[in-house]
Design a protein that fits this description.
Helices cover 37% and strands 17% of the residues. The chain is of the alpha/beta class. It folds into two domains: 138 residues, Rossmann fold (3-Layer(aba) Sandwich); 172 residues, Rossmann fold (3-Layer(aba) Sandwich), CATH 3.40.50.2000. Helix 1 crosses helix 2, helix 1 packs parallel to helix 10 and helix 7 crosses helix 8.
């Protein structure tokens, strides 16, 4: 596709961690193809902690919890500015309202099927429809729609020397390192404490140092405490002890990661660390770790055999259907 190189591009994608990781691949593909274009990215506060230091991108924070004042702040920061292109990669009412603060000649959104929540009302161009796309493929389609050649996704998220050294000080230098990131934001996405504990015991016997990583929520702390209590392994507990950048550095220096449908699953992909994802509620073909889709352990298909693409399974206990034997088998491929 031949087109006049754009001089200014605005990206709208403010959540969540996993989706922002996917968006990085598209943004950096655009940067490589249009090196002179000024790129502005409207992003969430937490997500900016992970990717907000990507070179040559202006980041504007949208505080998703601020309500009307958050929109007013965004409007004031962009007041008087005009972009050649807006890529609205977020399908939500909040995103649609936010997009009204962004003046752009070309306003790209998803195709009719995916442009839910009225996104089609605030765009004037649509990316082509795709057949059962992964979320990342959907984002890459935005880049392709504005003239970027189709390519394999790559990532280059900066990690400081200080964070790298800190991560190296927290993990083993005599054993291989196995990271468990056990908790997603919703308990229904999490596997059982018993299952994680059994896997920790198994991986220690395979000469791996087992480390549990996670954030500061009570859910993560409680699940981690249960795993440690049930396990006989000498677990290295880093839950609530890392920034997002430090967590990314730990994952980068690990040999293997186990996680459910949560941000660290996709953070692993960005730094090239193999990850076994655990899925029940969402179709891993759409939201799984992009470079390890064949290694996912899933019971989604069992519960949703004929579901439309993107349809979520309902239930709070579905992850319990994943067995220790299934997860062990997936991990053995890497051992």
């Amino acid at each position: 596709m031949n087109m006049t190189p754009p001089q200014s591009i605005c990206i709208l994608r403010f959540s969540a961690i996993g989706d922002v990781c996917h968006a990085v691949a598209a943004v950096q593909a655009i940067q490589r193809h249009y090196p002179s274009a000024k790129i502005t990215w409207v992003i969430g506060k937490i997500e900016a902690m992970l990717v907000g230091d990507i070179p040559n991108v202006e980041f504007i924070i949208l505080d998703k919890k601020a309500g009307l004042s958050g929109y007013l702040s965004l409007y004031n920061q962009l007041k008087g500015r005009q972009f050649d292109i807006l890529l609205n990669m977020q399908v939500s009412l909040r995103a649609n309202i936010s997009s009204l603060c962004i003046r752009a000649t070309q306003r790209w959104g998803f195709d009719k099927y995916r442009a839910r929540e009225g996104q089609w009302l605030v765009t004037n161009k649509k990316i082509p429809a795709q057949d059962k796309p992964h979320v990342l493929d959907g984002f890459m389609a935005f880049a392709e729609a504005i003239g970027v050649p189709k390519q394999k996704p790559t990532w280059d998220i900066p990690i400081s020397k200080e964070d790298s050294l800190w991560a190296l000080s927290q993990i083993s230098h005599t054993q291989k390192n196995f990271i468990i990131c056990p908790a997603a934001s919703k308990a229904s996405k999490n596997w059982t404490a018993t299952g994680y504990a059994e896997i920790a015991d198994y991986m220690e016997k395979q000469d791996f140092q087992v480390t549990i990583c996670g954030g500061f929520s009570d859910l993560e702390k409680q699940l981690t405490a249960e795993i440690i209590e049930l396990s006989n392994a000498d677990i290295n507990n880093l839950v609530a002890k890392t920034t997002l950048k430090q967590l990314l550095a730990v994952i980068k220096n690990a040999d293997l990661v186990l996680a459910p449908d949560t941000g660290p699953t996709h953070m692993s992909t960005t730094v090239g660390t193999p990850v076994v994802g655990l899925y029940a509620l969402h179709n891993p073909g759409r939201t799984g770790p992009y470079n390890n889709l064949d290694d996912v352990v899933e019971v989604y298909t069992k519960h949703m055999p004929n579901a439309k693409w993107g349809k979520k399974a309902q239930g709070t206990e579905l992850m319990k259907d994943i067995t220790f034997i299934q997860v062990k088998s997936a991990l053995k491929r890497f051992i």
